[in-house]
Write a structure and sequence with these properties.
Elements: E1 2-11, E2 14-20, E3 25-29, H1 36-48, E4 67-75, E5 80-88, E6 94-97, E7 100-101, E8 114-117, H2 123-126, H3 129-143, H4 145-165, H5 171-214, E9 221-226, H6 233-242, H7 244-250, E10 261-266, E11 269-270, H8 271-274, H9 277-299, E12 304-308, H10 316-325, E13 331-335, E14 346-351, E15 354-357
Parallel strand pairs: 3-13, 3-14, 8-12, 12-13
Antiparallel strand pairs: 1-2, 1-4, 4-5, 5-6, 6-7, 9-10, 10-11, 14-15
Length: about 350
């Protein structure tokens, strides 16, 4: 899979731009606040249909405009495709694949695969389990569209169960209603657990390999799925019943895959609690690089890699090893300066939302 060209219209500080890319390393240079990250954001929008930073999507529309557009031209193993996203201040965004609007964002997933990493992605290691669940969910969704539906149904049922727990009705009636939700919830718990377990099992060897390469073999990374212990539907339902008293008191469901996590260790030490910031950063980067191989293994096509201001956060040795690791992957790296004359790349300079090749 290869991103050949992107066209932007009134997207952030890009009034009108058409940028072509190479199949290898694309280095996007420029001072701060010139539009480097905006370019990666536009590409990522076409991967998952959402921004990695905007809380309100209308923020991406240039302040002097009412409509913004992103259009990417993708070369695949067989054929080509065009993804277009249109933002409006008055209507919901429109996503088109080869000129045909899609009804749900799930229809976009898998059309153009990519992996994004920035210094903020350190939260994958340091922050709450929610960030690590999101990491699993985005990756699985890019390779299995059915997972998007399963996860959506689970969240709907969970919301209904939580709502019911807050109702002021008799205990007998509450237990009867909750048992209906528990029956449905258990089915999806089983499926999501299996998907996530298999994902982490697949992730481990690739993450270990990437981490070993970047650290020059000095550290050993291990990744482990941490979730519910119950496997059968009957066991899951019984656990939900056991927790019911606590759930009623708290007003929400305390058991389920919405509490899953991933444990990451380096040399048998919990990175989240005891790792240095450098170790946490490299571990997070290794997990992201492992995504490339997992997606390729399942889809038989290599995703694009988006690295936002990552080089500034690594020492010289790890910078060079990361650049070596990216060989064979279409990669987009943003930076203020790129001083590696021996590294073959397509250099693009961004200034005030306008670009030029260096």
């Amino acid at each position: 899979m290869e991103l050949e060209k992107i066209e932007l219209y009134n997207f952030r500080n890009y009034k009108s731009a058409s940028i072509s890319f190479d199949s290898g390393l694309n280095v996007v240079c420029g001072e701060n606040a010139q539009g480097k990250t905006n370019l990666l954001e536009a590409i990522y929008f076409c991967v998952v249909g959402k921004s990695f930073r905007a809380t309100r999507e209308r923020e991406v529309i240039n302040m002097q405009s009412d409509i913004a557009k992103i259009k990417v031209f993708i070369k695949k193993n067989v054929g080509k495709s065009i993804i277009e996203i249109i933002f409006s201040r008055k209507e919901k965004k429109t996503v088109k694949i080869d000129g045909i609007p899609i009804k749900r964002l799930s229809g976009l997933l898998g059309e153009f695969n990519g992996v994004f990493f920035a210094p903020d992605e350190l939260k994958l290691i340091k922050e709450s389990p929610e960030d690590r669940r999101r990491f699993m969910d985005i990756d699985i969704s890019q390779t299995t569209k059915q997972y998007v539906y399963i996860l959506s149904r689970y969240n709907e049922i969970l919301a209904n169960r939580n709502k019911q727990l807050k109702q002021n009705i008799s205990r007998h009636d509450l237990e009867n209603i909750i048992s209906i939700w528990d029956e449905q919830l258990a089915d999806y718990v089983q499926k999501i657990k299996k998907y996530r377990q298999n994902f982490v099992i697949s992730l481990l060897p690739y993450a270990k390999k990437a981490h070993e390469f970047i650290t020059d073999g000095k550290e050993d990374l291990h990744v482990e799925y941490v979730g519910i212990k119950e496997d059968t539907k009957e066991e899951i339902i019984n656990k939900l019943k056991t927790n019911l008293e606590k759930d009623i008191t708290l007003g929400y469901t305390t058991y389920g895959v919405h509490r899953d996590d991933i444990k990451v260790t380096i040399n048998d030490i919990d990175v989240r609690s005891y790792g240095s910031q450098g170790q946490q950063r490299t571990a997070a980067l290794s997990l992201k690089l492992a995504e490339l191989s997992i997606i390729e293994e399942i889809t038989h096509t290599r995703p694009v890699l988006l690295l936002d201001d990552v080089l500034s956060e690594l020492d010289d040795s790890r910078k060079k090893r990361l650049l070596e690791y990216c060989q064979g992957t279409q990669t987009f790296i943003t930076c203020t300066a790129f001083n590696y004359p021996d590294i073959k790349c397509n250099k693009i300079e961004i200034k005030n939302g306008e670009w030029s090749k260096i």
